[in-house]
Specification:
heterodimer; A: about 80% helix; globular; B: 3 strands
Chain lengths: ~280, ~290
């Protein structure tokens, strides 16, 4: 094989695979968006008549609104706790050195190495025992704990990556200048790792928002959007779900592009600083 | 980056680790222990009875049915892991070195597809692959017979769903470690007369190994626990272990059995990871002795 032929073949495989995978990733998403505008009760192709009637039907569905509220509450609570714990965990992971650090790392990373359903089931057993003692029943509170256990390791990893480039001499300089440890944390460390914290929070929110397995096992009779959809499509496909999908895609899209542009801005500011310095 | 040596008496260390340790202890370690203990109990009339015997375990080991499902789960997980790992390599490399101008946008598109609700996406696949779905409808309109592609509600559909939902993990980890490779090493290999393919196989791939392994491990673990894809896309015709576990908790209300099956699946997963880890370690040692 000549070099030229080899290059052409490589180009074909590489360009082709990226384009193919993007199409593959968007097949179900595009299908849902298309079907959300159908007039018919049956979701079959081709769509003979377009309408927005299923959006109306969806917005009039009370179960939809209650699961939307539950999803939002669950995601906000899980994001706050997972991000705060993730900041602490990231310090302990990558900035400190202490006895039993390996044990700490393994313990805080282990939930990622469990299939989510098993994590949920294992916690459900314990929560049911607890609930029996405390006279509670599993609901949103247990789902929040489950989400925090599962999502915190992701936050630790994302914030730790941001800490990789952290210059410790800044801390020492501030200390020499008489700053207290709290001041150093607030004025120097946190602003510098802020992009990492922000990305971790967005990631946590989306992971919690879209989570199915853990919510399914832990939320009792409380429904979030994924479990609401699952209970609907397990019975038979209803035409409101494509509309639901299309509506919930929008906030996720906005959040993800917000992170993208924020990262780019942060990178540009760093470049400007280097150029000026 | 210099790391700060801390003692356990240090306030900052306690503040950053103790809440996490308490949480993981209370809601991760204790539940695991609970699960192990529960597997030695029994049920009567849908109620848990604290019997402390091995009945559930003798049941699990005597019924071939459970092991058939475990075996199917393991083979599906391994095939899915292999597919995701191999497919991710050209995709990650192409993103970084052919479409590098667009790599930010491509990454965002992938992240978006990855982070949207898996239940909805799986449902989207059903609408696409259905007998009267987008694919068959389009094929019919250009002259194919009706329902030409009949893949939905079969193990193959399950596999499509699993690869769809898990492929992003291997793409991201592989791309991350490929992005860190010093391009000069590849150019040096090319200068020394290596063909493109040889430079890729002997320089890029070995250096990207950590990311490829990390992605494979993640996908393997996650694919052991799927029940969404087998149920929604596979049509429940060939259930996997997670479905079995879900049924023993929900339908049969037999918690000790569910706990025992959960432990079996965890042990199978851990055993495969241990073998893979030992192989990787052995290979690395042999490599360094050369």
């Amino acid at each position: 094989m000549t070099d030229q032929m080899e290059k052409r073949l490589a180009d074909f495989v590489l360009y082709g695979s990226v384009i193919a995978v993007l199409i593959f990733f968007y097949i179900p998403i595009a299908t849902l968006i298309l079907f959300s505008f159908t007039q018919s009760r049956f979701l079959s192709w081709p769509i003979s008549e377009f309408s927005t009637r299923w959006y109306g039907a969806l917005l009039a569905d009370r179960d939809f609104w209650s699961s939307l509220g539950n999803s939002a509450l669950l995601a906000v609570l899980a994001t706050v706790f997972a991000t705060l714990l993730g900041i602490g965990g990231a310090f302990a992971w990558s900035r400190y050195k202490f006895r039993f650090q390996w044990g700490f790392r393994i313990l805080t990373f282990a939930p990622l190495l469990f299939p989510q359903l098993l994590l949920g089931v294992v916690m459900l057993l314990w929560f049911s025992v607890l609930a029996g003692w405390l006279n509670l029943s599993p609901g949103l509170w247990s789902a929040v704990i489950g989400h925090v256990i599962y999502i915190t390791p992701f936050c630790i990893v994302i914030i730790s990556v941001q800490m990789q480039g952290y210059d410790d001499t800044l801390d020492y300089a501030a200390e020499d200048a008489g700053a207290t440890r709290w001041q150093i944390l607030r004025e120097i460390t946190l602003p510098l790792i802020w992009p990492g914290i922000f990305s971790a929070a967005i990631f946590a929110f989306l992971l919690s928002w879209g989570n199915f397995y853990i919510t399914y096992s832990l939320s009792g009779s409380t429904r979030t959007l994924p479990t609401f959809v699952f209970s609907g499509i397990a019975v038979g496909s209803s035409p409101i779900y494509p509309a639901l999908a299309t509506l919930t895609f929008l906030p996720a899209l906005v959040l993800i592009f917000a992170v993208g542009s924020l990262r780019k801005r942060a990178a540009r500011r760093r470049l400007i600083k280097i150029a000026e310095g | 980056m210099a790391e700060m040596q801390k003692s356990w008496r240090d306030g900052a260390l306690r503040l950053s680790t103790l809440p996490l340790l308490v949480l993981m202890g209370l809601f991760f370690v204790i539940p695991l222990i609970m699960t192990a203990l529960l597997s030695f109990q029994g049920t009567q009339y849908y109620r848990l009875v604290w019997t402390w015997d091995l009945n559930v375990w003798t049941d699990v080991f005597s019924q071939i049915h459970y092991w058939k499902i475990m075996w199917r789960t393991l083979t599906m997980a391994l095939v899915c892991t292999l597919l995701c790992t191999v497919l991710a390599i050209p995709i990650a490399y192409g993103m970084l070195h052919r479409l590098s101008r667009w790599s930010d946008q491509i990454t965002l598109l992938m992240v978006f597809a990855f982070l949207t609700d898996a239940v909805l996406k799986t449902f989207g696949w059903v609408l696409f692959l259905d007998r009267s779905g987008v694919l068959n409808g389009t094929l019919e309109s250009i002259g194919f017979p009706p329902a030409a592609v009949n893949v939905l509600f079969s193990p193959n559909a399950t596999m499509i769903g699993m690869v769809y939902n898990l492929l992003p993990y291997t793409i991201f980890t592989t791309a991350l470690s490929m992005a860190r490779i010093d391009r000069d090493l590849v150019l040096a290999a090319r200068d020394a007369g290596a063909t493109r393919l040889r430079a890729f196989v002997e320089v890029t791939l070995p250096l990207a190994k950590p990311g490829i392994w990390a992605g494979a491990v993640l996908v393997f673990v996650l694919s052991l626990g799927v029940f969404l894809e087998p149920k929604v896309m596979g049509g429940g015709t060939s259930p996997l272990a997670a479905e079995l576990i879900r049924q023993s908790f929900e339908t049969r209300v037999n918690w000790p059995l569910g706990a025992a099956l959960t432990l079996v699946l965890i042990v199978i997963g851990a055993a495969v990871l241990a073998v893979a880890g030992a192989l990787a370690f052995w290979q690395a040692r042999r490599g360094s002795n050369d």
